[in-house]
Amino acid sequence: KQQQQQHQQQQQQQKQQQQQQQQQQQQQQQQQQQQQQQQQQQQQQQQQQQQQQQQQQQQQQQQQQQQQQQQQQQQQQQQQEQQQQGQQQQQQQQQQQPPPPPRG
Q1: What is the DSSP letter of 89?
Q2: pTM of the model
């Protein structure tokens, strides 16, 4: 009888060990899931950073366009000034021409 009881106890111990192993496996799975979630969060942060960079680039492009427009306006002003100078020269030339001699 004593021997039989010992056998039964050994079997019970083996069962307990198996249960412990299963619990450990479950814990490992949970840890893996947590790691995956962390990775996803990091990816989201990277995407946000990329979006911010894109926005900054767009702003820079807009600034460049504004500068180009200003340059064009300045060029137009210069052209207008040149035209005015040209008109003044023409007027002066007309005044400098001597009057035609009278015909008698």
Answers
A1: H
A2: 0.31
